[in-house]
Structures are given as C-alpha cells and as structure tokens.
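Section handout, structural biology tutorial.
Before the tutorial, make sure you can parse a SMILES string by hand: atoms, branches in parentheses, ring closures as digits. In the record below the ligand is magnesium ion, and the chain has 317 residues. In the tutorial you will relate the predicted structure tokens back to the input. Do not try to memorize them.
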Amino acid sequence: MPALQIENLCKTYGDRTRALQGVSLTVAAGEFFGLLGPNGAGKTTLIGILCGLVRPGSGRVQVFDADLATQSARARSYLGVVPQEFNFSIFEQVQQIVVNQAGYYGIPRKEALERSATYLQQLGLWDKRKTQARHLSGGMKRRLMIARALVHQPRILILDEPTAGVDIELRRSMWDFLIKLNQSGTTIILTTHYLEEAEQLCRQLAIIDQGQLIHQGAVKSMLAMLDVESFVLDLGVMPARLPSLPGFVVRQAGESSLEVDLPREQSINELMRQLDAAGIVVQSMRNRSNRLEELFLRLTAGANGAPLVPADSGALS
Ligand SMILES: Nc1ncnc2c1ncn2[C@@H]1O[C@H](COP(=O)(O)OP(=O)(O)OP(=O)(O)O)[C@@H](O)[C@H]1O
Ligand SMILES: [Mg+2]
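Predicted structure of the complex:
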C-alpha cells in the first residue's frame, strides 16, 4: 500500500491563482521523497491541503488506508508536518509546545513528557526545554517544529523547506537525523530548493512548476540528465581570439569572461590544463547556475520538443 496517493489535485485561490492544476503523485511507503520546484510552484499549497490548512478545489488524497476527505482524522494521524513558516506560540516553553501537540492526538501526559524528552534530546534542544520559543535561534525553532511534528509518531513526516536559512553544520546534522528516521521506517517527504539536499537524501523526486507535475522519477535518472555542467571563467585579460579547447564548448560571456560547457566525462583538471596550455589566466570560476536550475531548464525545455525523459523515469503528467 502506498504511503500517499494524490490524484488530480486542483486548487484555485480566491484571487484566481491556479496554485495546483491537476497534480497526481504516488509516494511509496518507506520512501524518502523530494518535492522540488521554484518559488510559487505550489509545493506549500500541496502540503497545506495534506495538513488541512488549505481546502482543495478538487481531486483525491489517500494516506495509507485513509481518505483525506472522508476519514480525515485517521489520515492526519499518519502525518506529521513541519511547515515552512514558524507557527507555534513564541511565548510558550519549548517542551510545553511539544507536549501540547501530543495532547491534540490524545496521548497521555506521562507518555507525552517521555516522548518530548526523547525528541528534544535527539534534536539537541534538551537544554532549551524551559526556554520560551521566542528566545530560540532560527535553526533551533526549525528543530523544535520537527520535534513537535514527531510527537505522535506519524508514519509520514512532511517537511516544507526544513533547511532554508540553516547553517551548513546544522543542515548536515538535520540530514543525519532524517536519514536515521527514514531508516527506522518513517516515510519522509520534503520540499527543497537545493538539488544537493535532494541528492543527499532523496531516492525519488517530483518536480512541480506552475501547479503542474513536470517530472517524477528516481534521483539517479534525473541527475543523469545533467550531462553537461556550465562554468563561467573570469579572466584577467580576454584573449584576442576565442580559444579552442578540444572536448569543451567555449563561448564569450562578458567583457572578460568565458562560458565553458564541461561534459560529465571530462574533468576540471583537463579544462585547466588546456587553458594553461593556451596561456589563459583564470582569476575565478563559478557554476553558471545552480544544478537545480540547470535541471529545470532541461525539463522545461522538454515542452519545446527536445526528448528529455530518461528510460526508467516515471510518467509525465
Ligand atoms: N493564501 C493564498 N492566497 C492566494 N494565493 C496564494 C495563497 N497561497 C499561495 N498562493 C499562490 O499560489 C501559488 C503557489 O504558492 P505556494 O506557496 O504553494 O508555492 P511554493 O511552491 O510553496 O513556493 P515557495 O518555494 O516560494 O515556498 C503562488 O502563485 C502563490 O502566490
Ligand atoms: Mg513554499
């Protein structure tokens, strides 16, 4: 039985924004699933529908054996949600916030205290248990929301951009925590703007754009589409002629910069060796765009006729 089955979900807001335009999606039980898409794609709207904050226009959602519309209490008991925006009372104490949440699910107080202690310890917040939430840092607030989402031990944990604005060290420890949680059997769905994050954590990805699912498939097969990476090289002095570098496509990108396409099988070392041989001095080098943007460009280019879908990928909708 899948953990989550979404069929033809539509949502139009009062101002006629068509946030979801018929999204269908299946998430297998035990999956670590990434939902990617640019700002305004509809990710938070989708999650809002799952946790009951947004009323769907049409469509159907099944969470394990429960229909979200007709068996909503059971469906929601399977779900723990960490929203994009902080939504706890900032004047309450940390542990109290987690214990109160357990109350909504009818968990006895003694049990709630024990569970809250476990999760606060695991998430490095135990020392802060008596602190008012408003005195926590942004990263701590994010972890508090994770503890709160887990207190009823949901079978699916949904996180809406859990690591936005979280420093790299904390991000890694959060990743470790989520990986362990997933290994212990919890299905995890997260939205992110970082392909690196999706790459580290997720096995399956769905990409939505303008309220539509544009691609779903295994992370590996999606990354295989990024067969070329483009770099911008800032040069001190532009050579009189565009250099010819065998194996690389070179374009002039600005007054004193070049753009180079690096095929997957080529190394940066080889590029540097050739630049050196051509007497070109590189002052700095950066990716032209982040890899998620690159993947995006490729997927949306599909609308213009280029074949994009790798053999083992899921259906386009
Ligand atoms: N309460 C609302 N009322 C009207 N329009 C809304 C509301 N919430 C979201 N929208 C619109 O719906 C669309 C989808 O927004 P949503 O927040 O779901 O996107 P998102 O993928 O989560 O974006 P982000 O990556 O920026 O968080 C956007 O055009 C947004 O302006
Ligand atoms: Mg969002």
